[in-house]
Every structure is written in structure tokens, then in C-alpha cells.
Specification:
- The complex is a heterodimer of chains A (155) and B (391).
- Chain A has one domain.
- Helix content of chain A is 39%, strand content 12%.
- Chain A contains five helices and three strands.
- Chain A has a three-stranded antiparallel β-sheet, with helices on one face.
- In chain A, a hairpin with a 6-residue loop joins strand 2 and strand 3.
- The longest helix of chain A is centred in the N-terminal third of the chain and has 21 residues.
- Chain A starts with a helix and ends in a 6-residue tail after the last helix.
- Chain B is α/β, with parallel strands linked by helices and 391 residues long.
- Helices cover 29% and strands 21% of the residues of chain B.
- In chain B, the strands form four sheets. In chain B, strands 3, 5, 6, 9, 10, 17 and 18 form a seven-stranded mixed β-sheet that branches. A six-stranded parallel β-sheet of chain B has the order 13-12-11-14-15-16, sandwiched between helices. Chain B has a three-stranded antiparallel β-sheet with strand order 2-1-4, with no helix packed on it.
- Chains A and B meet through helix 1, helix 4 and helix 5 of A and strand 1, strand 4 and helix 3 of B.
- The complex binds nicotinamide-adenine-dinucleotide and zinc ion (2 copies).
Chain lengths: 155, 391
């Protein structure tokens, strides 16, 4: 068992690290009401990225998403963007939905990231089988953060 | 198998964990022959990078023998002796294709943490917290190496295990500092830190033709080692005013290039150090940038400062005024090892680079917690402890 003190020290550590990073940013944007495109740049020629031949993680969305593919500037490859045809509801986009992992865009982001990796490398790197035994609350917090970390992001 | 695990802040232990397995076609599994303690591990062990879970295996600088290859592996066969780059690069994203391997887009399986901290996620690295992908570390009997065709390199026969080991991380890190800082013939280069990374940065600067290289630390044995094996001049920063000493040795100009190889736990005797420690403990800043501040101040007008030391978050009292008004170029990076490792192995085979002096201690996995303690406290003249699972 781990003391509450250790828990709070770890929690403060995690929150602190993120908070310091946040404070370093100038302005925190308000939640975005528009149905914004989620975008990645794939290091492949535009001809190699085709809407009807997208990797499985995106194919699975079928008609629920729309796709936009444009050449990236310079030598940067191809910009691949997706979004739901029907924008998620306000509730689905809420902070609570995001924290609990229920904002559907989180899964779509994961699929987009995986599609990029498949197009570039032919595989999606899987994490190692964990050796951690996070019995401590602090460790569990990192675990929670890591699980969310697969889905959250700047896309 | 046995592995060295992080149990909590300043608590390491050797435990049994399940053997690693191939998880992707482009993976190999390596039997670890030797690994080493790195200054970066100290930041994890001390809790300065708070994204560890109890039970995580640490270690990222290593050499081993290939024991299993995935179906998609082309360049390796069972039995090969390989040195493995500490950062994992996929080899085909835009960053890898442009030789910026530690920025790989496809090797961090927990990208959200890096995105929250830095704006974008970095590549993955072995045994370096869940912010950097959560991969298992190499202080174990076996380790899985993803994208092995790009990150594992055969070691030429003439190079012994201990020498080749450091080509995994500290040698390419040091080389990158001198290279990306643009060191060229005629330059005067100052290097903060005489650990393995600083020593290798100084050696790289010499091989790139620098006219004078001056290394700064406080441990007499490290200073002596740097003078003797690297061929650099040295300054003991506790015995003199570093800025004044550098001005005197550079005709009043200041060094053209300043390389910082100290990191977020920098030491100092000045009152500002107490301020830094308090702020770090209150989480008002995550890192102590003592040597970075000094390097920026000492650098000549229009010069370059390269930060090799690891920093995780935000720092206080960053001398932005000096950066702007002196027209400095300030740059940093985690190591893009794949860019340099083959060239470094060649130089080693040609006798231009020696590393074996860094291995001041050799221990078994069971003794690794004690070795880390010695490395952290810098006792018994420890510069690097080599951990051999078969010892
Ligand atoms: N950028 C990368 O990819 C990369 C790779 C490996 C290591 N690193 C980082 O490089 C740094 C050094 O690693 P190492 O293995 O050589 O560690 P180390 O602990 O062996 O060496 C650090 C040295 O810095 C000295 N030092 C402390 N405060 C100083 C000061 N104010 N001025 C001058 N010297 C000072 C210490 O006495 C010590 O000798 C660490 O921060 C590590 O995380 C970065
Ligand atoms: Zn390292
Ligand atoms: Zn890559």
C-alpha cells in the first residue's frame, strides 16, 4: 500500500508538469464549435494515398467520414484529413466526454494516426507487454494518462 | 527473465518479468550483452520526469545478440552482434527520412502525453517513461527492438563489446551536439559537463577540427579523464570564475560554440541554485538550467549554444535577452543516433574514437541498483557503470 502522501505527491507532480507546460503557452483556445478536419501528413507521394484505398482503420468508418487528400507543400508528402459527416453533438464534444474517452473524434484520431503509420511503414507499432504493476494510486494515474494518451492529441 | 525495474522515486530493484516477444513483423528480440547507466536515467530515477509506473524496466544504451527476427526484418539474422540506437525510428516518416530520428512520427505509442507537454509527440525511446512511449528498457536479459532494420547496427569484429556499447547513445549524442551546432575548423568550443555525453561532444568537436576545446566540470577524476582521453582543456568551475576564465582563454571573444551536456539537475554553489531547487520542488519549474544560463552568457556574440542535456518542461530565469541581443543561435535535440552510428563505428574501427575509458565499473544485473547509486552520487570515480546480465 502506498500512503496518501505519495499519491498526492505523484498527482501533483503529473499535474504540475502539465500545468507548467500549459502556463508556457500563451492563450488557451476555447472549445471549437466547428466540425474541424483532423489532419496528418503522410510521407508518401499524393498518388500513393487514395480515398478508396485507405488503410483498414479508416476504411472501417465507411460512409460515416469524409476524406480530403491534398499534396503537402515542398517535399513533405501528402496531407490526409478526415472528419465525421455529421458533427458530434455538443455533449459528445464536452470535456466530460473527452476525459472519459467518449468523444468519437478521439477514436477517429487514433485511426488516422494508425493509417499514417500503415501507409508509411506497413505496420502500427504495438506497445510492449507491460511489466508495470501499478498498485499505487500514482502509478494508476500514469496508466490512465497513458491510455488516454493514445487518443488525445493535436491532430 | 531478470530485469532492473523502477519501483518509485529513488527506488530500483531487480525482479523477474515475462520475457519480451515479437509484437510486430519488423521487430527483433535481442539478448542483452551489455548496457550502461546514462545521465538521462538519473532524471527518471529521481522523479523529475513523472511519467513512470512502478515495475517499468529502465535502460536505453545497449548492445546485444539477435535471438529472434520478425517476418518483415531484412537486415538482421539470428546470431548477429548489434548495437541498438536508444531512440526508435521507423525509417520512413518525414522526420526519419530527413535524419531527425528522435522526432519519428510512428514510434511513440502514448503520443498524447508529449503532445500535452511539448505541442507534438517525440519518437519512442527504450525504458524512458510513458511520455516517451513506455517501451521496456534494456537493463534486462532480453529486449524487443521495433523497426530493427533501422535502429540496430552490426558491430564490426574488431570492436569489443564495451567500446561499441557507447555507440548506442552517448557517442552519437555528443557527436550530434558538435555537428548540429556547426563546429568547424578554427572554432573555440566550450563543453559543460564531463560525463560520457560531454566527453564525446568534446571529442567530436576536436575531430571536426575545432582549434581549442575547453571542458567544464567539478569532479577532478572526470576532468583528468577528459584531458587524457579526449584531449580537451579543462576548467574546474568550483575553483574559478568560468566566464572570466573563458574570456581569458579566447582573446576576450568567448567560445564560438557552447555545448551543454549537464541537464535538468545541474549543480551550482550560487544562491540562485537554492532558488532553482525550491522552485523545482514546488513544481513551479520542472528543470534547473544552471549550465544553460552560463553557456548563453559566456557564448561569443553571434555564436551557437547547443543543449544536449535533457530538460522536460519549463525553466525559470532563462536569459532571453542575451539570446536576442547577442544574436545567438540556440538549439537542442534528443539524439538522432541512426544518422551517425555507422560513421561512428567506422571511426572507432579506424582508432579515431575511443570509449572504453568511460566504463569505470562493470557489474551484474543484481548489482545494478548499487551501480546506479554510485553513478548518481559520482562516488568511487564512477563515470559509467556497464551492466552485463551474464556477469
Ligand atoms: N540529447 C540526448 O539525446 C541525450 C542523450 C543522452 C544523455 N543526455 C543528457 O546529457 C546529460 C549528461 O549525461 P551524462 O550521461 O554525461 O551524465 P553524467 O551525470 O555522467 O554527467 C553530467 C556531468 O555534468 C556535471 N555538471 C553538473 N552541474 C554542472 C555545471 N553547473 N557546470 C558544468 N558541469 C556540471 C556533473 O558533474 C557531471 O559530471 C544528461 O542530462 C542526459 O540526460 C541527452
Ligand atoms: Zn542516454
Ligand atoms: Zn519515423
Amino acid at each position: 500500500m502506498v500512503s496518501r502522501k505519495t499519491f498526492w505527491a505523484t498527482a501533483a507532480g503529473l499535474a504540475g508538469a502539465v500545468a507548467v507546460a500549459r502556463r508556457a503557452r500563451t492563450d488557451e483556445p476555447a472549445p471549437d464549435p466547428v466540425n474541424r478536419w483532423l489532419t496528418v501528413t503522410v510521407n508518401r507521394a499524393p498518388g500513393d494515398v487514395q480515398a478508396d484505398k485507405l488503410p483498414a482503420p479508416l476504411q472501417e468508418y465507411g460512409e460515416r467520414i469524409e476524406t480530403r487528400i491534398v499534396p503537402a507543400p515542398g517535399d513533405r508528402g501528402t496531407e490526409l484529413a478526415v472528419r465525421f459527416r455529421e458533427a458530434p453533438s455538443a455533449a459528445e464534444q464536452s470535456v466530460t466526454a473527452r476525459i472519459t474517452g467518449n468523444d468519437p473524434r478521439q477514436d477517429l484520431r487514433v485511426a488516422l494516426r494508425e493509417a499514417k503509420s500503415l501507409l508509411e511503414t506497413g505496420e502500427v507499432m504495438r506497445p510492449d507487454e507491460p511489466t508495470a504493476h501499478p498498485t499505487t494510486p500514482g502509478g494508476k494515474l500514469v496508466g490512465l494518462l497513458s491510455r488516454r494518451a493514445g487518443g488525445e492529441g493535436v491532430l | 527473465m531478470k530485469a532492473l525495474i523502477w519501483e518509485g522515486v529513488n527506488k530500483l530493484a531487480v525482479e523477474q518479468v515475462p520475457d519480451p516477444v515479437l509484437r510486430n513483423d519488423q521487430d527483433i528480440v535481442v539478448r542483452v550483452i551489455a548496457g550502461t547507466t546514462c545521465g538521462s536515467d538519473l532524471h527518471l530515477i529521481g522523479g523529475y520526469i513523472p511519467f513512470m509506473q512502478s515495475g517499468d524496466v529502465i535502460g536505453h544504451e545497449f548492445l546485444g545478440e539477435v535471438v529472434e527476427t520478425g517476418a518483415g526484418v531484412r537486415r538482421h539474422a539470428v546470431g548477429d552482434r548489434v548495437v541498438v540506437c536508444s531512440f526508435v525510428g521507423c525509417g520512413r516518416c518525414w522526420y526519419c527520412a530527413n535524419d531527425l530520428w528522435s522526432l519519428c512520427d510512428n514510434t511513440n505509442t502514448n503520443p498524447g502525453i508529449g503532445q500535452a507537454l511539448f505541442g507534438y509527440d517525440t519518437g519512442g525511446i527504450f525504458g524512458y517513461s510513458h511520455a516517451m512511449g513506455g517501451l521496456r528498457g534494456s537493463h534486462a536479459e532480453y529486449v524487443r527492438v521495433p523497426f530493427a532494420d533501422y535502429g540496430a547496427f552490426p558491430v564490426p569484429e574488431g570492436i569489443d563489446d564495451t567500446s561499441a556499447l557507447f555507440v548506442s547513445d552517448s557517442v552519437p549524442t555528443g557527436w550530434m551536439g558538435a555537428d548540429l551546432a556547426g563546429v568547424k575548423p578554427g572554432d573555440v568550443v566550450a563543453v559543460w559537463g564531463c560525463g560520457a555525453v560531454g566527453q564525446m561532444a568534446a571529442r567530436a568537436a576536436i575531430l571536426k577540427g575545432a582549434e581549442r576545446v575547453i571542458s567544464i566540470d567539478r569532479f577532478p577524476e572526470r576532468l583528468a579523464m577528459t584531458e587524457r582521453y579526449v584531449g580537451s582543456e579543462v576548467i574546474d568551475y568550483t575553483a574559478t570564475d568560468v566566464g572570466a576564465e573563458l574570456r581569458e582563454r579566447t582573446g576576450g571573444r568567448g567560445p564560438d560554440v557552447c555545448i551543454e551536456a549537464v541537464g535538468m539537475e545541474a549543480h551550482s554553489d550560487s544562491p540562485v541554485h537554492v532558488y532553482d531547487q525550491v522552485k523545482q520542488q514546488l513544481r513551479l519549474q520542472t528543470d534547473r538550467p544552471t549550465a544553460v544560463r552560463q553557456a548563453i552568457h559566456a557564448c561569443r556574440k553571434g555564436g551557437t549554444v547547443f543543449v544536449l542535456g535533457v530538460f522536460a518542461g519549463a525553466v525559470d530565469k532563462f536569459p532571453l535577452g542575451a539570446v536576442v541581443n547577442k544574436g545567438l543561435t540556440v538549439r537542442g535535440a534528443q539524439m538522432h543516433g541512426q544518422r551517425y552510428i555507422p560513421m561512428l563505428l567506422d571511426r572507432m574501427a579506424a582508432g579515431e574514437l575511443s570509449t572504453s575509458h568511460l566504463a569505470t565499473h562493470t557489474v551484474s544485473l543484481d548489482e545494478a541498483p548499487r551501480a546506479y547509486d554510485m553513478f548518481k552520487q559520482k562516488t568511487d570515480g564512477c563515470v559509467r557503470a556497464v551492466i552485463r546480465p551474464d556477469a
